[in-house]
Amino acid sequence: MRQPSPRARRVAVATVSLVMAAGVAACGPEDSEGKDAKASTGGSTPHKGGTLSVLNANAQQDFDPARLYTSGGGNVPSLVFRTLTTRNRENGAAGAKVVPDLATDTGRANKDATVWTYTLKKGLTYEDGTPITSADIKYGIERSFAPELSGGAPYLRDWLVGAADYQGPYKDKKGLSAIETPDDLTIVFHLNKPEGEFPYLATQTQFTPVPKAKDTGTKYEEHPVSSGPYKVVKNENDGEHLVLERNPHWSAATDDQRKAYPDRIDVTSGLDSSVINQRLSASQGADAAAVTTDTNLGPAELAKVTGDKALAARVGTGHFGYTNYIAFNPKVKPFDDPKVRQAISYAVDRSSVVNAAGGSALAEAATTFLPNQKSFGYTPYDLFPAGASGNAAKAKELLKEAGHPDGITVTLTHSNSKDFETSPEIATALQDALKKAGITVKLQGLEENDYGDKIRNVKTEPGFFLAHWGADWPSGGPFLAPIFDGRQIVKDGANFNTGLLNDESVNDEIDSINKLTDLDEAAKRWGALDKKIAEQALTVPLFHPVYKRLYGKDVKNIVISDWTGVLDISQVAVK
C-alpha cells in the first residue's frame, strides 16, 4: 500500500480500500486460538436478521469497484462486490490466506507464472438475477483504466501485457487483448513478467464483475450492481450514509466466505472518533448492534475500557501488516556513512517509542522491517541490538569510528498529525533517546500534506525522517519491493524507495521470488531478503501497530484475521 493517507488506510485498504487503504488498507485476536477466539461468538449462536449499524469517521467514498483501493476486497465493499479471489474469513493466521471467491480456485499459472487462468463457479448471478460472466469481469477491469475512474490499485497497468497506455473502454472500445474470455466461465490473464502473487491481486475490487449494459460511468457508484450478499439501496453525500439490504439472488451455495447474517447494514460516516467510541461504549438503542471499521481506541480511551470488565470483553484486537520506521536518505550527509546510520539504530529507545505510540497494548516493538506474521515471511533478527532502552555506548563508539568523537547534530522530519505514528510524540521520544548517545536532534514538524510532499520527492527528501508502510496483501512482495527495488525509484513523482537503494542482487532476488507460485516458499525467501537488506541500515524499524476496536453489546461472531487486523463485518450477527 502506498504510504497511506487516512483515507487510504480505511482498508486497511479497507483499505484500503486501503485499504485504502490508508485508509485503507490488517494478526487476529491476541491468542486467537485461546480465550479471544472462544469468546468470539459473543456467548450465543449467531442468527440471521436485524440491522447492523456501522459508525465510521471516514466516508466510504468512491463506492465504485474501479475506484476503490482495498486489501482483500475491503470490509464494507466486499459485502456488495465479489472478486475472483478473496481473503479467508477466519481468525488469526488462517485469515491471511487467499481463497477462491467467484472462481473455482485461486488461479492456475503456466510454468513461469506469466499466464493465469480462472474458471468461474456455475450459477453466479447479479442482484437482478442475470448471470455473471467472464466478460463482465474483463469489462470491470477495463473500466478501472478510465482516467475518470482512477483511484484503484495500480498493479494491472504494470503487469498486463500492453496495458501501460490503455485509457479504458469509454475511449478504447477494443479493450485489453491481455485478458481473454474464451467462454462465459473462463478468463485468462497475460502478464509482462512472472507474478506468483497474482491470486492476491485478484482480491482487489477491480476484479469485480460489472455488466456493461448497467454501467453509468462516474454515476455507477450511486447504485453499483451487486454480486455479493447485499445491494446498495441508499448512497448519500458520496458514501457518508450507505444503506445495504439483502441481495435476493445471492446464494451461499456459491459463497462460503460471507455469512451475511444481518438483514440490513446501515453505515454512517463523518463522525468524530471520540463520539464513535462513546456510542459503542454506551451501546444504547441501535448502537447495541453497532461496529466501526475505521476507528481505534486511543491510549486514554483504552485505559478507561481496560478498567471495565464488561467493556474490555467487547474489544477486538488485531494486527495489520504495517511497520513504522525511521528512514535515512544516504545521499544526505552524515547519513551517507553506514556507521552513522548504525549508531542511530543502536541508540533508539524502543520502549519510549512504544509508550509514545500509546503503550504496549497499541504498539509492538519492531526490529525487522517485515511485520511479525508468518504470511509475510517474518524472520526474527536484530542486527543492531539496542535492547529495550537503547545502547548509547555502542552508538558513541560507532560515531567515533565515523569521525564524530564529539557527537553530531541532525534534523528529524516528522508530521504534525496526531496519529501516534509519525507525529511529534514519536519524534520527541527519539530526540530524548539519541541525546544520550551524543546525537543532538532538531525536530522539523510539517503539516501532513507538506510532510508527504517532502518525503516522497527525490529532490526534497530529507536525510532523516519518520515513515510507515502497510501491505496491499499479506506477503513480503508488496512490502519490500516498493521500498527497496531500485527499479521503482521515481525521480519525477511520488517515490517510496526512501533509501534510494538500487542493488542488483536485491532486484534479482525480488524477480526470482516473484516467479514462485508456492507462496509458503516465497514467504521464506522474502524473510531472508528482509534480513539481507537490513544489513545496509537504510531504515530503523520502530514498531508495528496493534488495533483495538470496540463493538456493540449485541454484536456476535467476531472474526479478526491476520489479513485486515479488524473486525470482519461479513461474519458478524446481531441476533
UniProtKB/TrEMBL annotation:
Gene3D superfamilies: Dipeptide-binding Protein, Domain 3, Periplasmic binding protein-like II. Pfam families: SBP_bac_5 (PF00496). Residues 1-25 form the signal peptide. CDD domains: PBP2_clavulanate_OppA2. Residues 27-52 are annotated as: Disordered. Residues 97-487 form the Solute-binding protein family domain. The lineage of its organism: Bacteria, Bacillati, Actinomycetota, Actinomycetes, Kitasatosporales. It comes from the Bacteria. Keywords: Signal. This is ABC transporter substrate-binding protein.
